[in-house]
Every structure is written in C-alpha cells, then in structure tokens.
Write a structure and sequence with these properties.
Length: 62
Amino acid sequence: MDLSKFESMDPIMLMSIVNMKIRDDFQDLDELVKFYDIDRQKLIDKLASAGFEYLPEAKQFR
C-alpha cells in the first residue's frame, strides 16, 4: 500500500495501515516516513484529527 497519498485517506483505515506497516515492515514511525518520503508531522496531525496518538513505546497509534 502506497502511503504517499495519506492526506486523502480515511483516518481509521490510515491508522490501521500505518500500525500494520510499523509492526510488519519497519522499526518505528521514523523509519516508515523516511521510506515513503512523507512528512512525519502531517501524518501525526492527520491521525490526531481523528483522535489517534502515536505512542513511541508501543510503536503504534492508538
């Protein structure tokens, strides 16, 4: 799944995809945003607008 168009994605679906990608393919959020060349803060803000917060110790949005 290409996350380059994350800004137009449904936030619940986006959260699910990001968490799955971090769990299965990346060490953490920083590695994911670097790989997809996306703005980390914009991704966090998009998910925060739907009530999700990134928990670095859990390496996922909740």
